[in-house]
Design goal:
The protein is an alpha+beta fold and 187 residues long. It has a single domain, classed as Electron Transport, Fmn-binding Protein, Chain A (Pnp Oxidase, Chain A, Roll), CATH 2.30.110.10. The chain contains 5 helices and 8 strands; from the N terminus they run H-E-E-E-H-E-E-H-H-H-E-E-E. Strands 1-2-3-6-5-4 form a 6-stranded antiparallel β-barrel. A hairpin with a 4-residue loop joins strand 4 and strand 5. Helix 4 packs across helix 5. The two termini are 19 Å apart.
């Protein structure tokens, strides 16, 4: 069902729609919640995959507490999907493949930037980027060790179709022993 909804959101996309955007909500080692948007890279029977700097607050939070929630908001098609599950690191080979698929500028930026680290003088980032461009001039840009991904293995997935009357249609799938159980929720 998710794959169908995601495909529909992608087909109906406009320049302002971001059907691959997903809000990742984590809780850090101090119990402080945080949410931020990332790009969904893939979905399979195994879960939902996104990539990040593993040393970022998001990466550290998921390492300390793998409990995670994802929220997809497709306003342009009147739908939302909420996922609750556990994050697990993807294999290096899978992270390598996602990294190679990124534009060269984005791969270089991954080397130059320490995601979410404080930035004093913006020129320092520009200097690091210039150094990285020289280092990899004309060659391949390999994946930095700190860049990887997570697969969110869902335990609960909720599909919501919006209605102007606020009588939204909500369907939940919960993983139970022996498979998935489907039930409806009141709006």
């Amino acid at each position: 069902m998710f794959r169908e909804w995601w495909a529909a959101a992608r087909r109906a996309g406009t320049p302002l729609a971001h059907p691959d955007a997903v809000c990742v909500s984590t809780v850090d080692e101090h119990g402080v919640p945080d949410g931020r948007f990332v790009e969904l890279k893939a979905v399979s029977d195994g879960g939902f995959v996104f990539c990040t700097d593993l040393d970022s607050p998001k990466g550290r939070a998921l390492t300390a507490n793998p409990g995670v929630a994802l929220t997809f908001w497709w306003d342009h098609v009147g739908r939302q999907v909420r996922v609750v599950g556990r994050a697990e690191r993807i294999a290096d080979a899978e992270a390598d493949a996602f990294f190679r698929a990124r534009p060269r500028d984005a791969r270089l930026a991954s080397w130059a930037s320490r995601q979410s680290a404080p930035l004093g003088d913006p020129r320092e980032l520009a200097l690091r980027l210039a150094e990285v461009e020289r280092r990899f001039a004309g060659g391949d840009v390999p994946r930095p060790e700190r860049w990887g991904g997570f697969r969110v293995v869902p335990s609960r997935v909720e599909f919501l179709t919006f209605s102007a009357s606020r009588m939204h249609e909500r369907v939940v799938f919960e993983r139970r022993e022996g498979g998935w159980v489907r039930h409806a929720l009141q709006p």
